[in-house]
Each structure stands twice: as structure tokens, then as C-alpha cells.
């Protein structure tokens, strides 16, 4: 299967789930436990991703370098997001507006 076919498959599944949620077709115990089901699926996904990362020797050997790059990207993202919000706030806020973000 190609990348385009995978993308269509995933978007189709997402669309079907959105339709089910929008039309409120999930009722009862399943609806009450959706948060728990999502948590279990997320933990399973993280577990399988950890296994695949651990099996890849090249990734494990470069983990420190990848971590440092991720740290730099994260810090830059936070700093520039704060700067962007402050700049936009100056242009959007009017004189009488005292609401804070």
C-alpha cells in the first residue's frame, strides 16, 4: 500500500469517527468509558513506539543528540510563541479592553 492509500485510510477512519460522535451514536457504558479507552489505546501506542525505538540501534546510539535537538526546538518554540502572542496582543487589544490572555 502506498502513502496516499494509507492517508486516505486514516482520514476515512477519522471521518467515520467524527460522524459517529457528531450524530451522538455512542450511548451507555461505552460513552461513559471513552476516556479510559482512549487512555489505554494511547498507552499501547506509546508502548509499541518505545519498542520500535528500542529495536532501532541507530536511534538508540543517537538518543543524546536527538534529545538535545528536541530540547532546543522546544525552548525556541515556547520563546517565539510567547513573543508572537505579545506582539499580536498589542495589535488586537483596544484601549478599553483590559482582558488578559
Account of the protein in words:
This protein is mainly alpha-helical and 101 residues long. It has a domain at 62-94. It is 81% helix and 0% strand. It has 5 helices and no strands. The protein has helices spanning 3-22, 28-32, 34-55, 57-61, 63-92. It is extended, with a radius of gyration of 22 Å. It starts with a helix and ends in a 9-residue tail after the last helix.
Cα-to-Cα separation, first versus last residue: 46 Å
**Any idea what the shape is?**
extended
Spatial extent as radius of gyration: 22 Å
Estimate the strand proportion. Answer: under 5%
Count the E strands.
0
The percentage helix is over 70%
Name the average pLDDT: 90
Order of helices and strands: HHHHH
Amino acid at each position: 500500500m502506498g502513502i496516499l492509500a494509507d492517508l486516505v485510510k486514516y482520514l476515512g477512519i477519522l471521518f467515520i469517527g467524527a460522524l459517529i460522535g457528531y450524530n451522538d451514536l455512542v450511548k451507555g457504558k461505552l460513552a461513559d468509558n471513552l476516556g479510559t479507552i482512549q487512555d489505554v489505546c494511547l498507552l499501547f501506542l506509546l508502548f509499541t513506539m518505545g519498542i520500535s525505538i528500542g529495536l532501532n540501534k541507530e536511534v538508540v546510539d543517537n538518543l543524546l543528540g536527538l534529545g538535545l535537538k528536541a530540547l532546543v526546538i522546544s525552548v525556541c518554540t515556547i520563546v517565539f510563541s510567547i513573543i508572537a502572542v505579545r506582539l499580536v496582543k498589542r495589535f488586537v487589544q483596544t484601549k478599553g479592553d483590559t482582558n488578559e490572555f
